[in-house]
Amino acid sequence: MGSTQAQLYSEIDKSLSWSERELPERERTKHVHRLHPYLGKFVPQLVEALLTRYVPRGGRVLDPFAGSGTTLVQALESGYDAVGVDIAAFNTLLISVKTRAHDLAVLDADMHDLGARLGCSTEAPTGFARDWFAPQAAAELLHFRSLIPEYSSKDVLRVVLARAARSARLTTHFDLDFPRTPQVGAYWCHKHRRTCRPVQTANRFLSRYLIDTAARIRRFAELRDTRRAAVVLHGDARELELGGRYDGIVTSPPYPGLIDYHEQHRYAYELLGLDDRRERELGAAVRGTSKAAIAEYVVGIAAVLARGQAALRRGAPVCIVVNDRRDLYPEILERAGLQLDERLERHVNRRTGRRAGEYFESILICRRAHHQPS
Ligand SMILES: C[S@@+](CC[C@H](N)C(=O)[O-])C[C@H]1O[C@@H](n2cnc3c(N)ncnc32)[C@H](O)[C@@H]1O
Fold this sequence. Notes:
With 374 residues, this protein is of the alpha/beta class. The chain has 2 domains: 5-99 and 226-368, Rossmann fold (3-Layer(aba) Sandwich); 104-220, no CATH class. Helices cover 38% and strands 13% of the residues. It has a 7-stranded mixed β-sheet, sandwiched between helices. Strands 3-4 form a two-stranded antiparallel sheet. A hairpin with a 4-residue loop joins β3 (187-189) and β4 (194-196). α9 (154-168) packs across α10, α9 (154-168) crosses α11 and α12 packs across α13 (329-336). It starts with a helix and ends in a 6-residue tail after the last strand. The mean pLDDT is 93. Residues 38, 40-42, 65, 67-68, 70, 85-88, 91, 236-238, 252, 254, 261, 280-282 line the site of S-adenosylmethionine.
């Protein structure tokens, strides 16, 4: 017999579980957290609570699987220095745009100037741009891209271009995350329960996102602790030099066989010419969940955590947010030389998306084990 809701909730850390009313979407995606969609991130309020509980204020935090940069952004807001590593170039671009100390006057001037120059390229689109956008949308995106080198705020503009490209792709409304083939004509939309048509233009997205991005960066600039800084490293966390001592790790590793982190932003890699290192991505969905794939995943995650714990100050915590339904973490922690001090359970509010059912995740609070694996 399954547990009753009361039993389930008695085991949950309620201060880390929020209902939609307590923590509405606009708070979960406040300021720079919404510069670009990203599937598989945790909420900044969870990072905030973990930092407050486990890491001395003013300390230095590491996230070796930094993703869209939630840990780094929240660290700056809460008064910590932070370092993040990610294998996916688009993620590190996004994090650096979120966490950099921008010159707001230059940023505003660039956004305003470029906003007045939106137009159409005469360049014939090829490859991805030709296949995944209506001709008008492709011409508008390529025109925008051609202007980026003229501005100081290049990286911000690259993120704006990627976000508009995502919105302007030839996709159905119900499959924005991983569309397999372009949707060229009208289609029956399960989401809106009517016939819908794919988007034909991009300039309205570019115009809206230029304004929204500048406003979000400005809002974050008012909140962040200006004495603190974030560093973003692009590479494989199994190999990169992590540099220096840390006062804590807050991270959510990829799950095996669930999400392809490069593929979810394919349009950005194609349009921006980013370095694609998907063959180094741990847990990638394309690798599946065979016994061999899981074994490789366990060794890989453990290697990252082992390097992370070796870079920690004595007694500093490793906070791992995970849904370990395959029960892989006992072995991962042992291989990484970590011991579990506390296991917190939280209820995850998944109001958005089409996923049904209750969802829980654990937060493993670990510390360096007395006996290290040889
Ligand atoms: C679950 S996501 C992290 C999400 C993050 N907590 C956030 O809120 O945005 C896991 C991340 O691990 C990254 N990753 C996978 N393999 C990696 C590797 N070998 N080295 C560094 N990062 C890796 C993926 O690119 C992905 O962004």
